[in-house]
Design brief:
This protein is of the alpha/beta class. The protein has one domain: NAD(P)-binding Rossmann-like Domain (Rossmann fold, 3-Layer(aba) Sandwich). Helices cover 47% and strands 14% of the residues. An eight-stranded mixed sheet has the order 1-4-3-2-5-6-7-8, sandwiched between helices. Strand 3, helix 2 and strand 4 form a beta-alpha-beta unit. Helix 3 runs parallel beside helix 4. The chain is globular and about 50 Å long. The N terminus is likely disordered.
Amino acid sequence: MSIDLDQDNATDLRPLAVVTGGSKGIGFELARQFAEHGYDLVICAEDAGVLGEAAQALTGLGPDGVSTVRTVAADLATYDGVEQLYAELQALGRPVDVLAANAGVGVGGDFARETDLDAELRMIELNVSGQVHLIKRVLRQMVERDRGQVLVTSSIAGVLPGPREAVYAATKAFLRSFGHALRNELSDTGVGVTVLMPGPTETEFFERADLQDTRAGQMEKDDPAMVAKAAFQALAHDRAQVVAGLKNKVQVGMAAAMPDTAKTAFHGQLTKPGKD
């Protein structure tokens, strides 16, 4: 259900940003960036209560002191959930200027011996199927208008095959490939696509993925506000890809020069159980 927290007669003069996974972490900070730069918002996540708290915090930001924030509580791991969000966007009667396709989840553990199949299949539905579904719906309208931007949240895991997060890393590799391919296909249009590749970030990811007792889970993490700021700047300059944080840039650069076996072994050390 869509909730209007603020209304303004001039909303049609402000651009509209849609942020999935917008209630917490990187998604919330992305929404903050858009609000502070004069965008109206639609934020989507599954938990209506947390969404409402996020919307309250985002309302009234921006250079004019006014921002319209709408929330859509929907499960984007399902076909119906994506269609629900898209129907809400259609009902607004306003074009989407930016889609931040950020919703995602992780699952950690040994694939053959530890992880739950249902959890991994649901992760694929959210991280891959739901993203493709929503982007397909919104992107066609952007192309018709010859204007718009899509931000696809991948991860540096998208270039590092991930032992003990094998399916998660594969979903992020898919998103990286998908985003770059779309950008090439749309190079003759006014629509841009940017791939965001954060590294370990101070969010609930490691707790939810059961990866706290790993080197990656224990290492110092990036501030999600920093990641979101880097993403917004990349969109503003229509960059193909943004890797947030110096150490992550170094890892991605190293990965480009390493064979797959070495990249996999390196990532496996980060996700190996135990802190030592």
